[in-house]
Design a protein that fits this description.
Layout: H1 10-17, E1 21-23, E2 26-29, H2 34-43, E3 45-49, E4 54-59, H3 63-70, E5 83-89, E6 95-103, E7 108-112, H4 117-127, E8 134-137, E9 142-147, H5 151-158, E10 168-173, E11 176-182, E12 190-197, H6 203-216, E13 219-221, H7 224-234, H8 239-242, H9 268-277, E14 282-289, H10 297-301, E15 302-305, E16 308-318, E17 324-331, E18 339-342, E19 345-349
Parallel strand pairs: 3-13
Antiparallel strand pairs: 1-2, 3-9, 4-7, 4-8, 5-6, 6-7, 9-12, 10-11, 11-12, 14-17, 14-19, 15-16, 16-17, 18-19
């Protein structure tokens, strides 16, 4: 297994050189006001490097049935050229990681969000017994997302075919191979671009050329601060930020990334029970916060109301008006406007 170290990588230095703030292995911001950046989503396109995401190739004769039995969405039914979103669940049905699964002619690509490639590969390796499966991380690959009303026009100017629904298109740009597929990480929607080298060479330099071409085509390069704000406003969750240990995918609004009909997989019994009973007590909601909580981990995410824990805090983002908003998985019986507290910070439920 090969993991991606983004702490001081050439790609991180490339983005820093482009006046993007890089913190803890993520491209965070460009220095522009959030409102100005989000206004771009209406008719333009924001280009955001997802430096913490990781890529792996899964090959071998048993690659598809093996992944089908490990991930929560259908893999065996995926046609060549197809792409689907899927989750890695634990035995309790909690959503631990989210990935895009792309089927190529002889293998599959996994693009895993938010620093969860290592844990996902560790879990997969643990379940390989007699399966003919090869797992290999791809440290030179990069995931970018292009979001906004003008994202389609940007891709068209780059050349190549636009991807159909649940499919990817393949182009070669600036010495890189690029797999593009539809992915809504904002209300306006857009595309993810999974790029990797076509041969030996300085990957950071090639990515720099690609960024220049995308910017020439009309994209505005920025970081995850603006993307987080767009997700909070649109109510779009991520497994690593809104879910995780203790959170079911349905509670975090991630139901589209799993299948109730595909048969046995890790956590499947819990999913079947939820489908049959439909008795979820928590759901995804938005919060207004008076400040940014300083805590981390389970205790730093606990939302409290009336002296009891009522939910789990997710993404916190600065919104266009300068206020702080957040996504959270919280009790569905709390009324709009209910007061909550997290890590000493006051909040209000705005659903």
């Amino acid at each position: 297994m090969t993991e991606v170290d983004t702490s001081a990588s050439p790609l991180a230095r490339l983005f820093a050189q482009r006046r993007l703030r890089v913190e803890a292995g993520r491209v965070r911001g460009s220095g522009r006001p959030t409102g100005e950046e989000l206004a771009t989503l209406d008719s333009g396109a924001l280009l955001v490097p997802l430096l913490a995401s990781g890529v792996a190739v899964v090959g071998g004769a048993d690659a598809r049935p093996f992944l089908h039995g490990q991930l929560a969405n259908d893999v065996t039914g995926l046609a060549v050229g197809g792409v689907t979103r899927s989750l890695m669940l634990n035995h309790k049905g909690h959503a631990l990681a989210e990935a895009a699964v792309l089927r190529r002619t002889g293998d599959l690509l996994l693009a895993v969000d938010d620093g969860q490639l290592g844990p996902l590969l560790t879990s997969l390796e643990r379940h390989v017994v007699f399966d003919e499966v090869n797992l290999a991380g791809q440290p030179d690959w990069l995931l970018l997302t292009l979001q906004g009303g003008g994202a389609t026009q940007v891709l068209e100017r780059l050349g190549g075919e636009l991807p159909a629904e649940r499919a990817f298109s393949l182009t070669q740009v600036a010495g890189l191979v690029s797999y593009s597929y539809r992915r809504a990480r904002s209300a306006a929607g857009g595309y993810d671009l999974l790029v990797g080298p076509t041969g030996p060479g300085a990957v950071a330099a090639l990515v720099g050329q690609l960024l220049a071409e995308l910017q020439d085509a009309g994209a505005t390069l920025t970081g995850e601060d603006a993307l987080d704000a767009a997700r909070v406003l649109a109510g779009i969750a991520g497994a690593a930020s809104e879910a995780g240990e203790g959170v079911l995918p349905q509670e975090a609004g991630l139901e589209a990334a799993l299948s109730y009909r595909k048969g046995c997989y890790l956590g499947q019994e819990i999913m079947a029970r939820i489908e049959a009973r439909g008795n979820l007590k928590r759901s995804l909601a938005r919060l207004a916060l008076s400040g940014r909580p300083a805590g981390a981990g389970e205790n730093g995410r606990a939302l409290v109301a009336g002296g009891r824990v009522v939910g789990v805090l997710g993404t916190v983002a600065e919104l266009p008006d300068g206020s702080l908003g957040a996504l959270a998985v919280i009790r569905a019986d709390l009324p709009d406007g209910a007061a909550v507290e997290v890590g000493g910070i006051e909040g209000r439920l705005t659903r």
